[in-house]
From TrEMBL:
This enzyme's EC code(s): 5.4.99.9
Domain of life according to the entry: Bacteria
Protein name, per record: UDP-galactopyranose mutase
Listed GO CC annotations: cytosol
Source organism phylogeny: Bacteria, Pseudomonadati, Bacteroidota, Cytophagia, Cytophagales
The keyword Transport appears for this protein: no
Amino acid sequence: MQHYDYVIVGAGFAGSVLAERLASQAGKTILLIDKRSHIGGNAYDCLNEDGILIHQYGPHIFHTNSPEVFAYLSQFTEWRPYEHRVLASVDGKLLPIPINLDTVNQLYGYSFTSEELADYFKSVGEPVEDIRTSEDVVVSQVGRDLYEKFFRGYTRKQWGVDPSQLDKMVTSRIPTRTNQDDRYFTDEFQYMPLQGYTKMFEKMVDQPCIHQLLSTDFKEVKDQLSFDELIYTGPVDEYFDYCYGKLPYRSLRFDHQTLDVADYQPVSVVNYPNDHAYTRITEYKKLTGQEHPKTSITFEYPQDEGDPYYPVPRPENAALYRRYKQLADEQPSVHFVGRLGTYRYYNMDQVVAQALTLYKKLVGIESLQEAVKS
Ligand SMILES: Cc1cc2nc3c(=O)[nH]c(=O)nc-3n(C[C@H](O)[C@H](O)[C@H](O)COP(=O)(O)OP(=O)(O)OC[C@H]3O[C@@H](n4cnc5c(N)ncnc54)[C@H](O)[C@@H]3O)c2cc1C
């Protein structure tokens, strides 16, 4: 049996970045395991049977303010400039979200200036002394009507609980604007990988020192493996056999469809906060820029059962995670990282940064700039 310096569980961003760095820069031997049949984790994309590039696990838009993360990933892909814009279907209209000047003017038939809108928000916003929940955040900024129309239904569908029961971080992620900026993100770097995410991952992990073991659950093979250290990017509670109980996750069902039309909706993502059981529809060609006579779309149905996608941000879950974290900290040769390993709602760039930070620690280098060098 071959001995490895590292076994890495999970070939998503967290596992693949660490495999790439440890193999290419530190000459370590790696066994990269994933229970899925492919690398890329939730960012995996592929051509469907009609040859349209789709994201198997929902739309992934890359955005970051970190020059180091961008420089690091740029070693493995070229980029396509892409600024994400989302519309929400409300009262029979398609309106920009995050809420901005056009959203309010088009919804109510006003013709506010930015200054007038700021005053309007002040007049309808409900003062909340201690902002704790996702409802508090929105109601205090834009008032109850906009909260009900754009946030309440969407959040209830997405998380299965009322925003008044959810930590403020969920809706704090979405800004409110008094100008006409209709970009979903304002980060400095906003791009899509030119040939897709999977091609980028292939470039990262196709190296002689990295052996891939796909379609394999770590649990099934762990007793047969010989290695020095383990990097674990799966769910931390699963690693410890749920000894304190299960950490709650929200999952999704994806309904992928291909339509015999070239164009389906005006932007890549349209949200449905109030109607239908699905939360949003994504049209991939608008993300990827692909030309094709047909178009592929995906409906997202949130659900409790299924693959763990979103850690549910509630205080009792954070407390349960802290108990697992304590166990994790007692295992010096096992490193927990990534969205599932640290039970945190992270974007891709944050996971890359987290993985690079662990790499720095493992090999004893100081700066992030040094960590991303080729
Ligand atoms: C619907 C959706 C949309 C998103 N959109 C965006 C976006 O637009 N922009 C953005 O920046 N981020 C987005 N994200 C977040 C992004 O997906 C994550 O930040 C990123 O994928 C996390 O990488 P990871 O490596 O931590 O986890 P994952 O990608 O989940 O990888 C973990 C891997 O571990 C494997 N694994 C788990 N347990 C085991 C085991 N026991 N044995 C073997 N393998 C195992 C899993 O199969 C999985 O492949 C989105 C997430 C979702 C769910």
